[in-house]
Design a protein that fits this description.
The protein is mostly helical. It is about 70% helix and about 0% strand. Helix 4 packs across helix 5 and helix 6 packs antiparallel against helix 7.
Length: about 170
């Protein structure tokens, strides 16, 4: 999402940008805020009832198929349904976003990293994040049920920035 948000305003997809509150709610819920469940549920429901959730193939609106949007929606589904398949699909779309980002840089005539190197770097970032999450697994395994406020705050401080960082 951060790459999409960094695009010039005219290149940002409005639907994708509208998903920032949903992504924030997924973060909060994943870090133990039990009140986030309702926000995630509503965000997914709004998507499901919108024109962006369709079976029109290439003839329907394409914003929901934008990588940041799809990654956010998969992450929200993974949170709601605790199904690892959605997390795998979110990971795949994050890798696809690397290619999309490099294409955008090339269009702006900026220096572009090698696609293979950039893809490997994204996968290494995801593995680093999984290692970090594993270190907190004792706390995080019950996060969807809600955690004590002090635990949730501690997790937010210790995990949110490192897990959100693309470096």
């Amino acid at each position: 999402m951060s790459w999409h948000e960094a695009l010039p305003e005219e290149d940002r997809a409005p639907f994708t940008m509208s998903l920032r509150p949903l992504l924030n709610a997924v973060w909060e819920g994943s870090l133990g805020d039990s009140t986030a469940f309702t926000a995630v549920k509503r965000g997914v429901a709004e998507y499901m009832l919108s024109e962006y959730c369709h079976n029109d193939g290439q003839d329907g609106p394409d914003d929901a198929d934008e990588n940041a949007a799809a990654t956010t929606l998969y992450a929200a589904h993974a949170y709601l349904f605790e199904c690892c398949d959605f997390a795998v699909w979110a990971s795949r779309r994050a890798v696809d976003a690397v290619d999309e980002h490099l294409e955008h840089l090339a269009e702006q005539e900026e220096e572009v990293a090698d696609l293979d190197e950039a893809t490997v770097a994204e996968l290494q970032r995801q593995l680093r994040d999984l290692d970090l999450i594993a270190n907190y697994s004792k706390d995080l395994r019950l996060a969807s049920l809600g955690l004590p406020i002090d635990t949730s705050i501690r997790l937010r401080v210790e995990l949110r920035t490192p897990l959100s960082n693309r470096d």
